[in-house]
Amino acid sequence: MSRGIELKSFDHEGRRRSSSVELSGSAECVRQKLDLLRRQSSEDASSALPIHSLGRVDIGARLRTTIPGNEDASCRVEACGLTLDEAARRMAEDGPNKLTPPEVEALWVRFLRTAFGGLLNILLWICVFAEVILLLVYPGQKDLVTPAILSAVILITALLQLYTEVKALSSMEALRDLQVGEAVQVVRMDAAQRCDLSVSAEDLVKGDVIFLDAGQRVPADVRIIHCSSLEVDNSTLTGETMPELRSSAAEPANMLSTEARCLAFSGTSILKGSATCVVYATGDRTFLGQIASTMKSRPPKSSLEIQIEHFVHTIARVALGVTGLVLLSDLLAPKLRSFSEILENCATALFSQVPEGLLPTVTLSLMIASRRMSRLHVVVKKLDAIESLGCVSTFCSDKTGTLTAGVMQVQEVLLPFGEALEMKSFEAEVSGRKGSMEALATAGLLNNNAQVLQTSSGELDVCGSPTEVAIFKAASTMLGLSIRDAAPEQACFEIPFNSENKWMLTVHRQQNEEFPCRVVIKGAPEKILSLCKTGQDFDCKLRGLMKRGLRVVGLASRQLKAAETPETFEGAALSDCNFPVSGFDLLGFFAIEDPPRDGVKQAVMKCKDAGVKVVMVTGDHPATARAIAKCVSILGEDEEDDGKKSESFKVLEGDDLDSHLPEEDFNGLSASSQAFWQQAVQRARVFARVSPLHKRIIVQAYQFYGQDGLGDIVAMTGDGVNDAPALKQAQVGIAMGIRGTSVAQEG
Fold this sequence. Notes:
By secondary structure, the chain is α+β, with helices and mostly antiparallel strands.
């Protein structure tokens, strides 16, 4: 018996596809073939869905890799991942997991362009050529000094400029060497046997199953299939300082991939927890690579290039005009002159108009400035950027890691005292409140997953979630303990923090027969207050802190009596714990923020005094951006927008820009959009919740509409991948040091 069946489906581009197979043989054989067709149909349907919306089975089918079922969710036991042969084939097909470096011009080509390119160099070489012609016309006149010296000046100037740029490139390569990726734990298969390997990040391919732990950088774009209390730092991509939680659960298909919590992107960092992931994009196909691909366009000319070009054009017109008049006067003169005399007079007239010393003077001046800046640890990639920096009229700056330190720190602690909250500095001595401070600090160390690790230099450092690291350091200072002595003790039971609970709970055993255990809970203020015995309303005080951009974390504790203490603690939420989780005693709150860098406020004030407009451009939350902008004097204390962004334009968000974005350039915008950008350029001081595309367009807007339509000279500072397109667009791009990503430094 034989039956034919055709299974019709549509691929991700909407084209109709069909699979046909002849079903024959036993019923079991037919059933197996039908299952195969159903899986093929499922793969066709899932290929149109983003990877963050797929389950484990569909992820394996999409990436053609082996992923175990839920019985080995963490992929720590069974054979899984790619075979060694398949991994080698994909490496040969897709290439190594690294960004394609920008094309580097050969040294000899760069030298020829520097020595013979540009109108000024052309004029100088014309003068040399004229002198050589005169030598040929007048064999007896051996004036070799003039053309030789002029040629030497041009060539030596080109060599000096080339030397400075090559030295800067070498310094940038040294910075990139400090960012070399670490080895990654990956599992592959050899003849169906599990192989646990440690490979370089560059050797990863799509479909690899990898394991990531706290402190590691994410080496590629990955889909998380299993994780434990995972938090990542996305600040290099998004600009947000707060760690972001991650999970393995699939997200809706219509959600943006950058917002999906089951994805982690190349270049970000694991702050807390561990994860098992599947690589789904490598190299230029990663999100980071897509941003880097937007930087292929040629940057705008520097102000020095424009000024010299304008000056040389003027000089060329004058020189040619004078030379033409000399030629005309020689031809019309009563005394008949020979060809050699006419040529000599014209060459002299041309030579006298060309500023031979301009090129070496400018180059040497910029080299001296570059050397002085190198003493301040500034690597100058292009010499003419030094002059442009002195002409800057608008200074756009990222927030996280640029204006701020990029490290979360406790700024204040709040202690409950009767019906009020007392705000104290955690470093200050508090008379009469020492017991409350110690109780809060002790709880901050107990309920804490930060780890004390030894660095390569032999020093101790605290690693983990930025919030927990900040609380750990503040609590150890409050108790007068060193980092080594403050290392948190192991809890006997823990319910980790997650986005649904918004709290973390730990249970600790103590030497007390009446109260053998102590429960400590930490989390969002509203959650902590709802579990406490206190009936006070502290919302007004806490809202004031949050409005200033601080993250407020509350702590509370309660003692468990012997009768309330189970033999084994169980539970994953408040509703299913087998011990009391109410009636806590409020201990206080930690107010945490990423503080401004030292000296930033003074630098902003100096820029304002010099007539330079300073603008913050960040992907962070508007409230945080506004608070930091006021702290560093980008926004004045009286410049409060009261939420009326359309009227004040002081603080604008990415959503405000979306309806006014140009398709190609600003010339094609509607009248209303042009009016919007003119107002934004004149009045806005903070742009928050903006994407990398927004940042580049904001820089373009200042270059187009600034200074009443004449255009601003714009400098942009940043350190993250999200800053790279804007760094490339600005006349002066400043990438921030070792923290700056290689993509940002390429800008």
